[in-house]
């Protein structure tokens, strides 16, 4: 009888451990410990726009979509010009065309543009459609125009 009780306790402990691991993987424990301030009027788009403004970004080249609309609206409110394109590569080429590297970067050492690229498509679909490495399509590229080709070599974030 004692062996059955011990086996039952071991199974219950294993089930509890599995449930804790699943809850942690789903982020449920984080949500329980860190509550959202419902009274706050701010959202994540405003935070992103403030960071871009603090880095001196004047242009935002992006592919429009509902998942980044708060960022685009906040950038326009902060005076950052938003340029919508139809493809990620077009956004990078437009950034190269708008601000030549010898006009701005060498004089002020500030990044004049930002390429915001957040993709919610499956990796295989995006990879097949563009014939580019899938790791290029997540992140923010912040830097002078002559650094833009580095994004397409796999460096999604150019630090400044």
UniProtKB/TrEMBL annotation:
Family to which this protein belongs: Belongs to the TPP enzyme family.
SUPFAM superfamilies the UniProt entry points to: Thiamin diphosphate-binding fold (THDP-binding) (SSF52518)
An annotated Gene Ontology molecular function: flavin adenine dinucleotide binding
Stretches assigned to the Thiamine pyrophosphate enzyme N-terminal TPP-binding domain: 43-98
Protein name: Thiamine pyrophosphate enzyme N-terminal TPP-binding domain-containing protein
Species this chain originates from: Hirundo rustica rustica
GO cellular component: acetolactate synthase complex
Cofactor: thiamine diphosphate
Gene Ontology biological-process entries: isoleucine biosynthetic process; L-valine biosynthetic process
InterPro entries: THDP-binding (IPR029061), Thiamin_PyroP_enz_TPP-bd_dom (IPR012001), TPP_enz (IPR045229)
